[in-house]
């Protein structure tokens, strides 16, 4: 994990003392008062806003998840030729940057949690889906399995997923998304909610690797260091730069960070092929006791935090 280092007259000797690096003692005039030129200077890193045309347009309203617009998403072939998974979200998740990644769904799920964004999902085979899922990252969700309540369509295109879904009671959305090509057997939201949270063909993550990944994510989240957090979640430098430029993500980070407890020492560990989790009992930023479970999924060389569950 890398941190932003401030540079002044001398380099900072301790890597973790980021905020103490690069400070200069102000120079003074003959009376001993600091001069303007010698006053301490604070250099803020400029983040370039990242925008792109919305590849999803729609609106949804349902008692379990609330009312929201749809603006972004990803699409990828379901393992075993089961159709095309179309996952759409309430907030931008930098889809142009993650569509070509090894694990686009895993990264989309991680960003959905970070942004506290509601979502919908279908898996289309010959234009039809056997289910219609809706959910929030940390609370309500629903999944219907009666296709009579919705209609769907998707244009045959080898490189894109283009189509739409209309739910007779709750809303609709249209999508025009690049068709991703995951390098692992990605788990859909429907699978994830059924407890299938990892690639069954992948090895079990080790306790040492998962605990280390959890600690890096925890520390970045508690410090509200978005750049370090995104790096800990496995995003590359180009993706990190884009995601940091999404409108409203700094405010999302403030909410997300409260899901990490202090002191936050991991205790119970469980693992299955392609996925593992640790349990933590501690207090949140308001001093309220919680027991949280942090779920991780394998994504090539990375282990990505893709779920947080809590109990009071």
In short:
The protein starts with 55 loop residues before the first strand and ends with a strand. Helix 4 (207-222) packs antiparallel against helix 5 (226-232) and helix 5 (226-232) packs across helix 6 (237-244).
User: Total strand count, please?
Assistant: 15
| Helical residues, percent | 10-25%
- Order of helical and strand elements: EEEEHHEEEEEEEHHHHHEEEE
Number of domains: 3
The Rg value, from CA coordinates, equals: 22 Å
Shape: globular
Described by strand count, sense and barrel closure, the largest sheet is:
6 strands, antiparallel
The low-pLDDT segments are 1-31, 33-42
Tally of individual helices: 7
How far the N terminus sits from the C terminus, by CA atoms, comes to 31 Å
Average residue-wise pLDDT: 86
């Amino acid at each position: 994990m890398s941190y932003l280092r401030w540079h002044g007259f001398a380099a900072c000797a301790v890597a973790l003392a980021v905020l103490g690096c690069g400070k200069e003692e102000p120079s003074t005039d003959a009376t001993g008062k600091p001069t303007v030129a010698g006053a301490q200077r604070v250099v803020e890193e400029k983040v370039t806003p990242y925008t792109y045309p919305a590849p999803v347009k729609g609106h949804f309203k349902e008692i379990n998840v609330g009312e929201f617009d749809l603006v972004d998403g990803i699409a990828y072939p379901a393992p075993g030729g089961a159709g095309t998974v179309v996952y759409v979200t309430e907030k931008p998740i930098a889809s142009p940057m993650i569509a070509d990644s090894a694990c686009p769904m895993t990264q989309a799920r991680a960003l959905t949690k970070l942004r506290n964004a509601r979502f919908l999902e279908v898996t289309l085979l010959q234009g039809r889906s056997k289910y219609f899922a809706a959910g929030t990252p940390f609370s309500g969700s629903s999944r219907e399995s009666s296709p009579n309540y919705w209609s769907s369509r998707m244009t045959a295109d080898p490189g894109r997923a283009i189509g739409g879904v209309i739910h007779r009671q709750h809303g609709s959305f249209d999508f025009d998304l690049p068709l991703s090509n995951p390098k692992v057997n990605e788990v859909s939201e429907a699978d994830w909610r059924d407890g299938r949270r990892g690639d069954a063909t992948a090895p079990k993550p080790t306790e040492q690797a998962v605990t280390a990944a959890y600690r890096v994510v925890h520390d970045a989240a508690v410090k509200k260091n978005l750049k370090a957090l995104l790096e800990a979640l496995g995003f590359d430098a180009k993706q990190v730069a884009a995601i940091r430029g999404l409108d409203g993500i700094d405010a999302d980070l403030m909410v997300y960070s409260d899901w990490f407890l202090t002191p936050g020492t991991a205790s119970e560990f469980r693992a299955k092929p392609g996925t593992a989790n640790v349990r933590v009992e501690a207090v949140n930023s308001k001093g309220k006791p919680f027991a949280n479970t942090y779920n991780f999924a394998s994504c090539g060389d990375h282990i990505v935090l893709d779920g947080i569950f809590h109990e009071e």
